[in-house]
Design a protein that fits this description.
Blueprint (H helix, E strand, L loop, with lengths): L13 H6 L18 H11 L1 H10 L2 H20 L5 H31 L17 H8 L9
Helix pairs in contact: 2-3, 2-4, 5-6
Length: 151
């Protein structure tokens, strides 16, 4: 995104509007904080401060600024929702889900292995991922899987 505002743009960008200043033709905020998305800059300003955001954007090559703004907006929105943990809370929650799903997958794989070893056909029911026989836990431990999530 090169330049700032488009020629003949009538309204200032969301940043300049919030900061109550004139939006210059080469405004660094304009390409990333359009006037029709004021909440986007409001949260970023609240969390990082306009001066810091301006410095960060000025220091980055133009082709990286869009990604930087996306990251700042994501973190700012997360901080507004959860001032203590921010996006770390979402990451932690997703990690817990991954750990639980990996445990369920290990249980399912161990049960398939157990059924193959015992010569039984593999059923496609049991979507709750609960083992059908107690010996599945022995197989899980033998293959190094544990049912405890790692935090």
């Amino acid at each position: 995104m090169s330049g700032g505002r488009k020629q003949g743009a009538a309204s200032p960008c969301a940043a300049c509007k919030l900061l109550r200043r004139r939006c210059a033709q080469d405004c660094v905020f304009a390409p990333y904080f359009p006037a029709d998305e004021p909440h986007k800059f409001a949260n970023v300003h609240k969390v990082f401060g306009a001066s810091n955001v301006n410095k960060m954007l000025q220091e980055l090559p133009e082709h990286q600024r869009g990604d930087a703004v996306s990251s700042m907006v994501y973190e700012a929105n997360a901080r507004v929702r959860d001032p203590v943990y921010g996006c770390v809370a979402a990451i932690s929650s997703l990690q817990q889900q991954i750990d639980a799903l990996q445990t369920q997958l290990a249980l399912a794989q161990a049960e398939v292995l157990h059924l193959r070893v015992s010569g039984q056909t593999v059923p496609f029911s049991n979507h709750g991922f609960e083992p059908t026989s107690p010996s599945v836990f022995t197989l899980i431990e033998a293959h190094g899987f544990t049912s405890q999530a790692h935090f």
